[in-house]
C-alpha cells in the first residue's frame, strides 16, 4: 500500500484508534497511535510517543479513556497518557511500582494494578480524578518456585486482572506454576491473598482469559505448551482446573521449542485463540458447543515472527497480532461461523509488543 492509499484509508476512519506498544530496547518507537479503518480493518500510523521505555503492555480505562502503559524495565514503572486529537498527552512522569520488570497492568475502579515479572509481585496504585497515576504503591509479593532451573527459580507474576464481576483480582505466575486470587480494598489499595490454584509443575502459566459467560477460564502455559480449562466460582473466588488441551507445536524448527504467549476469547464467546511463538502460528478453538471443551478448528501463520500479542477488535470481525521479531501488526478477517482466519493486511511497527483499541 503506497502513501496515497494509506491516506485514503485514514480518511475513512470513523474516529476509532489503535494504540500499539513496542520495545524501545529492541528498536521500537514506544507507543504508536494508528487510525482504524472500519471497512477494511487497516491501521494507519499517525504519531508515536517515545517517552515511556518498553511499553510492552497497554490498557485503556473504560470510564476516563486514559491510556496506561507499563515500563518493562529493570526498575519497573507505569505511565498515564490522555488520548487527544490522534495523539497522546502525558499526565505526569512515569511512576515506580515497587517492583521490577513490569509486564502487565489492569484498571480496577480508581486503582491501577501491575504484574511485575522480575520481582514476582503485584502492585496497586491510586488513580487521580483526571486519571493520573501516583504512589506510593501497595505491593503484594508472590512466593514459590518451579522445577525449571532457568525460568522458575522464584515467582514471576506475568498478568493481573479483575474477574468479570470485579470482586476479585486474579494474577498468573509463571515461576510458581500457579494462579492467585486476591481481594482488593479499593480505598487503601491493599491486596489480600484469598486462594491459590497450583497447576502442572513446570508448565509456566503465562496468560489467561475469561469466557464471556464468566464461568470458564482458559489458562495458557509458556514452558509446556498447553491450555488448561478451568471453572471459575465467582462467589467463593476459586479456580478449579478441569482439563488440559495440548497446544499444537507443528512448524517449530528442529531443536527449538514452542512458547505460547497469549490466549483470547471472541466477544461472542464462540472461539478461543492462542498465539504460539516458535511455530509462529495462531490457533483457533471452537468453544461454541461447550465452553469447557475447546476443539481445534484452525491454525494459520501469524504473518510474521514471534507473535507476542493477539487481540480481537470490538466488533469481533478481525484479529490483530503483534509480531515482535518481524516488527509488524498483522490483521486477519475472522469468519463468524467457522472462526477461521484469513490474512487481510499488515503495518510495520518495529519490536511490536501489544495493541489495544479505543
Task: Characterise this structure.
The protein has 358 residues and is mostly beta strands. It is 3% helix and 49% strand. It is built from 1 helix and 28 strands. The strands form 7 sheets. It has a 4-stranded antiparallel sheet. A 4-stranded antiparallel sheet has the order 4-5-6-7, with no helix packed on it. It has a 4-stranded antiparallel sheet with strand order 8-9-10-11, with no helix packed on it. Strand 4 and strand 5 form a beta hairpin. The N terminus is likely disordered.
Outline the fold blueprint:
Blueprint: H1 3-11, E1 17-22, E2 31-36, E3 43-49, E4 58-60, E5 67-70, E6 78-84, E7 87-90, E8 102-108, E9 111-116, E10 121-126, E11 138-141, E12 157-162, E13 168-173, E14 178-184, E15 191-198, E16 205-210, E17 216-221, E18 226-233, E19 238-246, E20 259-265, E21 271-277, E22 281-286, E23 295-301, E24 307-312, E25 318-323, E26 328-334, E27 341-348, E28 352-357
Antiparallel strand pairs: 1-2, 1-28, 2-3, 4-5, 5-6, 6-7, 8-9, 9-10, 10-11, 12-13, 13-14, 14-15, 16-17, 17-18, 18-19, 20-21, 21-22, 22-23, 24-25, 25-26, 26-27
